[in-house]
Amino acid sequence: MSAIDIKSFRSLFHGQVFEPADVGYNEACQIWNASVRKHPSVIARCSGVADVIAAVNFGRASNLLTAIRGGGHNVGGRALCDDGLVIDLSRLRSVFVDDATRRVRVGGGATLGDLDRETHVFGLAVPSGIVSKTGIAGLTLGGGVGWLIRKYGMSIDNLLSAQVVTADGKVLTASATDNDDLFWALRGGGGNFGVVTSFEFQAHPVATILGGLLLYPRAMATDVIRHFRDYMASAPDELTA
Ligand SMILES: Cc1cc2nc3c(=O)[nH]c(=O)nc-3n(C[C@H](O)[C@H](O)[C@H](O)COP(=O)(O)OP(=O)(O)OC[C@H]3O[C@@H](n4cnc5c(N)ncnc54)[C@H](O)[C@@H]3O)c2cc1C
Predict the structure, then answer these.
(1) From the CA of 74, how far away is ligand 1's center (Å)?
(2) Nearest 10 degrees: Cα torsion 94, 99, 103, 109
(3) CA nearest 109: which of 197, 201, 190?
(4) Residue 32 CA: which ligand 1 atom is closest?
(5) Residue of 136, 139, 163, 192 best suited for mutating to test ligand 1, as the one with most atoms within 8 Å of CB
(6) Which of 30, 103, 126, 149 is exposed most, by the fewest CB atoms within 10 A?
(7) Distance (Å, whole) CA 166 – CA 229
(8) Residue % of the chain over a pLDDT of 70
(9) pTM here?
């Protein structure tokens, strides 16, 4: 990566670019697993799809190892890489709910908390995971298992389409009818097929929940686990434990 390359990249990028000497670089390297220490050469915090395209093209032209950061919750620290480019989507957190169709468009850097906050306004929910700060992107691309799985399935079961920037810098829509092979790959294939800039989900009515933690003395373990097994065999789909 030459000084000229990075200078010209900075000039056409609208978001923030961090190199190791820049203020904010250390903060931009923080992810959920604080024991992961990786030092990218460039972090490109995108402000929109055009920035994602610019970052992908820059990484390809400069032959840089590239990582994509969604919510930064991957335990192995895959949101970052050493000596390469991080395409950071943490500013792409918008969520738009279409109340009539119950369809939800979610930015590729949104967290589960961002999503729940907006769908809750309409008495709706998209099946996702259990911890609000997890990224919807990494979670969905890996399947997405959460509280609503018994009633409404995994996150990928409710994915209608995704907007993807591919390695050649093109923007594609992947759905059951458009680029269906890419759509198939995204539903479980992880971050290996492009940068997902937004997801479109089907939401479901979930207005009220009852939740909590049940604790029993250790001496009751055998009875409790047997009861749990027998009870769940015929429990309603609304109940997840
Ligand atoms: C505390 C905690 C609780 C969790 N709970 C659950 C749970 O309830 N259910 C569940 O299913 N999983 C759960 N997970 C696992 C979690 O879903 C995965 O770690 C997931 O990868 C996190 O996604 P992220 O966007 O936050 O991660 P990141 O670390 O940002 O990214 C993870 C992977 O996805 C890629 N990626 C990220 N964003 C994009 C994008 N926009 N386009 C393309 N690729 C992208 C990255 O390159 C990386 O390979 C949990 C993890 C933690 C740490």
Answers:
(1) 5
(2) 10
(3) 197
(4) 53
(5) 139
(6) 30
(7) 45
(8) 99
(9) 0.95
